[in-house]
Amino acid sequence: MDHSLHKKHTRRLKIIEGQVRGLQRMVEEGAYCVDLITQSSAVKEALSSFEDAVLENHLNTHVVEQMKSGEHKRATNEILKVYRLSKKK
Fold first, then answer.
1. Is 62 in contact with 46 (CB distance < 8 Å)?
2. Counting CB atoms within 10 angstroms of each CB, which of 23, 61, 71, 80 has the fewest?
3. Which domains does the chain show, CATH number per domain?
4. What GO MF annotations does this protein's record show (predicted)?
5. How many other C-beta atoms lie within 10 A of the C-beta of residue 22?
6. What is the full DSSP assignment across the chain?
7. What is the CB-side half-sphere exposure of residue 46 using CA atoms within 13 A?
């Protein structure tokens, strides 16, 4: 992963960490249930967006290189693995 993308992913994860800490604080302070669910949904969406970005990078770099170098089976297996993981959501 190139440095700029690494930096972008790290920043995104720090934002998610802040959201989770905020959610924890809300629970500790006895926040309204609907507000907790709203914040929890935002955290899940942020994580899903992070996963999408990592997957896009993987497909555009590693899988493309595997295909170019003749590792078609390995590339296909990785795509299927990610697909199966996404279905578990």
1. no
2. 80
3. 3-87 (1.20.58.1000)
4. DNA binding; metal ion binding
5. 14
6. --HHHHHHHHHHHHHHHHHHHHHHHHHHTT--HHHHHHHHHHHHHHHHHHHHHHHHHHIIIIIHHHHHTT-HHHHHHHHHHHHHHHHT-
7. 18
